[in-house]
Amino acid sequence: MIPSDARRLPWIAASDDSGAPNLARLADIAQGFVVRAPVCDAWTLRLVAETTDHLEVRQGVVEPSLIGCSLGAMITIIEDAGVGYAATSDLSPAGLCAAAGRALDWARAHARLGLFDARLQPPCTTVADSRTPVEEPWESRALADKLALLQAANQALEIDERIQDWSAWLSHRRVEQLLISSAGGRVTQVLDYVHPGVQVVASAGSQTQRRHGGGADGGLQGGLENLVRLGFLEDAARLAEEAIALLDAPECPSDVRDLILMPNQMTLQIHESIGHPLELDRLLGDERNYAGTSFVTPEMFGCYRYGSELLNVTHDPTLPGELVSVAADDEGTPAAREVLIRAGILERPLGGTLSQARSGLPGTATSRASGWDRPPIDRMGNLNLEPGQGTLGDLVGQVERGLLMDTNRSWSIDDSRNKFQFGCELGRLIEDGQLKGLVRNPGYRGLSSEFWRRLAGVGGPETLGVGGVLNCGKGEPNQAVYVGHASPPCLFRQVAVFGGGE
């Protein structure tokens, strides 16, 4: 039992670092809760302060800027076999006490009616501090300089009268989080993100084509230095030229061919047909009513051939710079690299400590919440397809008759994350080991349960692309989170492809 008159605990430390201006306030709020915490078996307090800033220039006109801030707390209480949650933006001592009381009431109700014993959840004892390395802080450039950069991107996009719409944007997000527990855990994390992007739409007659890039698909942790790494300005002119060229390109053929997927399309392929199917809460039935189940079953781990021997997939929140690079997940489980699929064999699911205890399966440090007003659930973090060998040219050279596809445009997948269909913005024919002309409106379809077994080539480390998904939705009430992905280009044999008319 945790006494309600606990003394000031030495593991709560304040911070006055100007790069994380809210940490000192979060530490003070946490200390106020500690001395008033309810009598219960265990508790955690997760405080989150978030600021966002979004700038955009469309067709040379500065759009209204979007500035946001959020500050609140999630309290988790475990009492007997029950767990209860309560979130609040009232961070006064009275507000936190009221929220803790609600969480305790829910824990007692869960102890009577719940489907699992909350005492399976191990206590958080992690002590860790982490911060995103930032070379060029968001605040280091004046607003006028950022808008000038966006105007330069707009000028690079407006290259032809057939360009009907074009825009460039630049966003910043900072998350400061403090997690403390009755077991002595304390995890402080400061995460910085800069998300740039460009988009261009070309139109002629009845044909319209869109291209986007420059960091639009995911981005990286860090500061403004990532503008160069993500090719923000460099992508603009190329994307505009491709959008125009696609207007006159033939439709993608509809048949069965070898297929090379570029890293930014591999992001969604990995996300939908490996990441979501391996989430433990789906296997336990928690997501059935909302986001579906999975074609994967618990018996498959350790023996199921998910893909060819070239398929190696890891979950790695320790990688610097990727979108979900953290010291610990939102329940305080220390970050660790884990192999999910090794040489094509399924080894480990994605799931936090509670799901692991409920299922009897190993998992990952991947209990994550979208903000202070949501409890952590099983999510992807940094889910990566490990590199193989060779260049993109080496992959192309292995194809006698095929297609290369780049940049997702549309997607559909069934509620067991098996049958899928994806459309891409750009396609290129491959004939006799050579890249040929463009095709427009390319798409492909397949089954997750057999698609990865067609994997016949994986590019080397020099071809690795790092990106992710900024709007992965799951849970009731819904939670949208960032997910990091990295992959080289990959070659698949004999895939059903189709054009825009199908």
Gyration radius, in Å? 24 Å
Number of strands: 24
Give the DSSP E fraction (strand runs of 2 or more residues).
35-45%
Helix-residue proportion: 10-25%
User: Could you say which overall geometry the principal axes of the C-alpha atoms support?
Assistant: globular
Uncertain residue segments: 1-17
Note the total helix count: 10
Largest sheet: 9 strands, mixed
Structural class: alpha+beta
Euclidean distance between termini CA atoms: 63 Å
Mean pLDDT: 94
Overall description:
- It is a single chain.
- With 502 residues, the protein is α+β, with helices and mostly antiparallel strands.
- The chain has helices at residues 23-34, 93-113, 143-157, 226-229, 232-248, 263-275, 280-283, 353-359, 392-397, 448-451; strands at 42-58, 61-62, 66-79, 82-88, 127-131, 163-181, 186-204, 207-213, 220-221, 255-261, 313-315, 338-342, 345-346, 367-368, 377-378, 382-385, 401-413, 419-431, 434-439, 443-447, 455-458, 465-474, 479-487, 490-498.
- Strands 1, 2, 3, 4, 5, 6, 7, 8 and 9 form a 9-stranded mixed beta sheet that branches. The chain has a 6-stranded mixed beta sheet with strand order 13-12-11-16-23-22, with helices on one face. A 5-stranded mixed barrel has the order 10-17-18-20-24.
- Helix 3 runs parallel beside helix 5 (232-248).
- The longest helix is centred in the first third of the chain and has 21 residues, at 93-113.
- The protein is globular, with a radius of gyration of 24 Å.
- Mean pLDDT is 94; it is low at 1-17.
